Amino acid sequence: MARLFRLAREPRDACSLDPAPSGFCIVTAAGDIRIGVGGWIYAPWRDNFYPKGLTQARELEYLGEHLTATEINATFYKLQKPESFAKWRDAVPDHFRFAVKGSGYCTNRKNLAEAGEAVLKFASQGIVELGEKLGPINWQLKGTKRFDADEIAAFLALLPSSHEGVPLRHAIEARHESFDDPVFYDLTRQAGVAVVVAESDKFADFSAADGPFVYARLQRCRAEEPNGYPPAEIAHWADQARGWAKEGRDVFTFFIAGAKEKAPAAARALIAELAGDAVPPVE
Fold first, then answer.
1. Given CA atoms 216, 220, 224, 230 in this order, what sign does their dihedral have?
2. Distance CA 133, CA 64 (A)
3. In the list 29, 53, 101, 204, which could disulfide-bond 76, CB 3.0-4.6 Å?
């Protein structure tokens, strides 16, 4: 989605960018912040997030009322039907967004440059049925995949900017430390692809929020913490999200792994910490 700009007469030291002539400066509209988890069907959440007695068929509806995004994991394992995407779309409020996990058939291969046909098939499966509720697509690489500039450049060139008139936003989740390379970040900038911000106990951490939007996957929920993360860390990620949004970038932050039973509590705690700075849930 195109970012809007406005001209405002403000003191020169109030301009986040170089001031324009005549004392005007260009002010970037703040991005939207959405917070969520991975998926919506997870048995332990029936003990500490979903109300007792809520049917599984209504779990997505409930999650959509209390969080503002989720990551669809099923698309990583197999293609889904257009009817499924339409059903999921209709279960959540208008402000909710679905991030979509890119197919493992595309990314779990020796040479990513050969994924063209698979990427097209993925885009054609029916994700456009999500309409305006479609968030970014996350292309998660294998933890053993090492950075090769030519291969990654070729893969990024395969990612379509739209499908059937619906804009597509892409993020790439590198999990090997070799990707922490200026050449990698240059390639993603040129392609307009976001680099996933990730913290994990299993894979390399990536803290550089590089790209036209921010996609963060936080994977260190702790069972001993009531909200999965201690208050100081929740406050840290809230400050990070505010800063990214002030740059005019949309922000998608997901609590994914670790003590996953705590992920909804962590997401709700971050939404509360952000207060009016984030897209609010229905509740």
1. negative
2. 11
3. 101
Residue whose pair of structure tokens reads 């952000």 in the numeric block: 274
- Paired tokens of 250: 């949309």
Q: What does the pLDDT look like over 206-246, one tens digit per residue? A: 888 889 999 999 999 999 999 999 999 999 999 999 999 99
Q: Which two tokens stand for residue 264?
A: 């909804």
The candidate with the shortest Cα–Cα distance to 172, out of 141, 201, 144, is: 141
- Enumerate residues 6+ apart whose C-beta is below 8 A from 223: 259, 261, 262
| φ and ψ at residue 67, rounded to 5 degrees | -125, 180
According to the model, what pLDDT value does residue 25 have? 55
Site of tokens 């200026």: 182
Separation CA 183–CA 178 (nearest Å): 11
Using alpha carbons, select from 212, 275, 185 the residue that is nearest to residue 239.
Answer: 275
Q: Tokens 């048995």 appear where?
A: 43
Q: Output DSSP code: residue 179.
A: G
Q: Please tell me the predicted confidence (pLDDT) of residue 27.
A: 60
> What are the two backbone dihedrals, phi and then psi, of residue 171, each rounded to the nearest 5 degrees?
-130, 150
266 class by beta-carbon count within 10 Å (0-12 exposed, 13-18 middle, 19+ buried) = buried
Domains of the chain by range and CATH?
1-30 (no CATH), 31-277 (3.20.20.410)
* Tokens (6 digits) for 203: 């894979």
> Model pTM?
0.90
DSSP one-letter code for 5: E
User: What is the full DSSP assignment across 66-93?
Assistant: H-SEEEE-HHHHS---HHHHHHHHHHS-
Cα–chain-centroid distance for residue 59?
A: 21
